[in-house]
Amino acid sequence: MSDLVLTQPASLAIARGNGKRSLRIVQSLCILIIALVMISPLFMLLIASLKDDRFRILADMGSFRAFWVSDPTLSNYKEIAHFSGELAYGRYLFNSLVILVATVVSGLIVNSMAGFVLAWGSLRGKATLLALVVALYVIPQESIIMPLVVMMSRAGLTDTFAVQILPWVASPLYVFLFYQFFAQLPKELYEAAEMDGASAFRIYRSIYMPLSLPALATVSILMGIESWNQYLWPTLVTQTDYARPIAVAIATFFGQDSIYWDRAMAASVLMMIPVLILYLAFQRWFVSSFVGSAVKG
């Protein structure tokens, strides 16, 4: 009887251990399958960019041969890596980088200043302004895009870098994100700096901005992705290669008579690299910002 009493808890513990181990194996398999599903299009894109025959790429799609290349070549990258001529994708990539850097840098300054004023400024009607900022966020960009095109055309800014940067510098979403972050910082910080004689701009620049690395990283990545993936707006406001970004240029590979899959794949890989570098550079603060937001609810 006593042996039976001692054996039952031990067998239950073994059964629970086996159940937890089985659950971990199932969870790992599910994560592995999800990761493969998410990574497989990127891997197929990279493999296709190393094939120099567009008909072969088309024939391999839909089979496991799309994930394998027997004789890899960089000829597609060499064909499009020019700064002039018909395949000036080096120029398009440079244009996109200029637009990305200018939009993100100016956007961080403008949106953080607006968020700081809404959080700590002595402005009358701050609550009304904040409500208007939130209300502006729900208006779709597409609904105001045609009046915006007319305004830019009358201002003589079409087919320039400025027309692809200025309209997207200030954003209600990023103003609200900065406002939320600044409002959560202790009020004593602002009051102590004010008692020491610091101006509002000095408090913003020397105290609040150094403490805002997670918010800066989050806004940088979101603004960078938004700017980098712009397609409709540059299609409407650019007519030449002078300021055309790579997202619009890639569409020229898809003609009515023929589709150049090989060059399009190589250009798509080049288009992904700067965004991946931006994410990896700010990954630590980006993840901590999202984790902090989730914990605070």
List keywords for this structure.
297 residues; mainly alpha; 14 helices; 0% strand; flat
Write a structural description.
Helices cover 73% and strands 0% of the residues. It has 297 residues and is mostly helical. Helix 4 packs across helix 11 (213-228). The longest helix is centred in the first third of the chain and has 48 residues, at 2-49. The chain starts with a helix and ends with a helix.
Write the layout of secondary structure elements.
Blueprint: H1 2-49, H2 54-60, H3 75-80, H4 89-120, H5 126-137, H6 141-154, H7 162-165, H8 172-184, H9 187-195, H10 200-208, H11 213-228, H12 232-237, H13 246-250, H14 261-296
Task: Write a brief structural summary.
This protein is mainly alpha-helical and 297 residues long. The chain is 73% helix and 0% strand.
The ordered string of helix (H) and strand (E) elements is HHHHHHHHHHHHHH
Measured on Cα atoms, how large is the radius of gyration? 26 Å
Q: Major β-sheet, in short?
A: none
Number of strands: 0
What's the tally of helices?
A: 14
